[in-house]
Known about the structure:
By secondary structure, the chain is mainly α. The protein has a domain of 90 residues. The chain is built from 7 helices and no strands. Helix 4 runs antiparallel to helix 7. The protein starts with a helix and ends in an 11-residue tail after the last helix.
Amino acid sequence: MTLEELNQKVLTEEFSYQEFELFYKNLMNQFLEFQKTLEEAALVARNDKDKFQRLLRIVSGKNSSDLIERLKKLGYRYRKSSIESIQVSFANMGYRLLEQTRAGKRDDVYYGLLRIFIAAKENFPLDLVEAFKPYYSDELFKTFIFSFLSGLLGQEEQTLNEEN
Length: 164
């Protein structure tokens, strides 16, 4: 559905919440795809490379707040997971990963997380892959990983949308 079609439905008062929710999800997916395309363009651009990098920082900044929330929910899902090896590994390594993140040791954090997922025979989550991309600042990287780990190691949340 296009924005024009959605506007037309509003004008005729023939719309539903689900249509808006679906439109929003599609829009966010398009925005993420745009960021991936822009990332590739910034890597291969011969002209205006600085402009591409600047635009990539703006776009990735917009997606950062959404990624922070998704990482926290992902951590929470792994805490509640039935995969015992992941729970045990994070219980044993969680605070070490926190300290490595605080120290800005991206490679060590990546290695630690990757080991946990490989040992559990689980795919490495794409949202975690995104958090390690080099165009994110060190401070933003820390925020991403702290969000994920807070979901894993934090207290129970009392929200209605924690599984979304």
